[in-house]
């Protein structure tokens, strides 16, 4: 989990996408997040986290539903939402922290 601490200490917003690749909603979110990453370029970082490969982290953060999205800035969680989001909504939310 020390790598997680380093990851979220970023001075730019970090959007974490907790997912399961077998879940259709997660697959849809992958497409949405590619658009978000393209639009925001270096102003935000997007990290996909497979809940099956990162069970300890998922349990620690109480991930109960996928997709779950979180935004961290300077080590602090700023936003969390489960379920699908649109690219426009995510871009607007991330821009609040850029």
Record keyword descriptors for this entry.
98 residues; alpha+beta; Glutaredoxin; 4-stranded mixed beta sheet; 4 helices; 4 strands
What fraction of residues sit in β-strands? 25-35%
Number of domains: 1
- What is the typical, i.e. mean, pLDDT? 95
| Strand arrangement in the largest pleated sheet | 2-1-3-4
Q: Using only CA atoms, what is the Rg? A: 12 Å
Number of strands: 4
The CATH topology name reads Glutaredoxin
CATH architecture term = 3-Layer(aba) Sandwich
Number of helices, where a helix is a run of at least 4 consecutive DSSP H or I residues: 4
CATH class: Alpha Beta
General form:
globular
Query: How far apart are the termini?
Result: 25 Å
Poorly predicted segments: none
N-to-C SSE string, H for helix and E for strand: HEHEHEEH
Structural class: alpha+beta
The CATH homologous superfamily? Glutaredoxin
Structural notes for this entry:
- The protein is α+β, with helices and mostly antiparallel strands and 98 residues long.
- Helix 2 crosses helix 4.
- The chain has a single domain (2-95), classed as Glutaredoxin (3-Layer(aba) Sandwich), CATH 3.40.30.
- The chain has four helices and four strands; from the N terminus they run αβαβαββα.
- The mean pLDDT is 95.
- The longest helix has 17 residues, at 24-40.
- It has a four-stranded mixed β-sheet, with helices on one face.
- The protein is globular, with a radius of gyration of 12 Å.
- Helices cover 40% and strands 26% of the residues.
């Amino acid at each position: 989990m020390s790598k997680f601490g380093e990851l979220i200490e970023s001075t730019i917003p970090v959007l974490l996408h907790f997912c399961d690749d077998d879940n259709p909603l997660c697959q849809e979110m992958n497409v949405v997040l590619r658009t978000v990453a393209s639009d925001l370029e270096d102003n935000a970082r997007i990290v996909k986290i497979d809940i099956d490969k990162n069970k300890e982290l998922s349990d620690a953060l109480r991930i109960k539903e996928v997709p779950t999205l979180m935004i961290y800035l300077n080590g602090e969680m700023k936003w969390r939402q489960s379920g699908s989001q649109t690219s426009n909504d995510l871009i607007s939310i991330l821009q609040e922290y850029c």
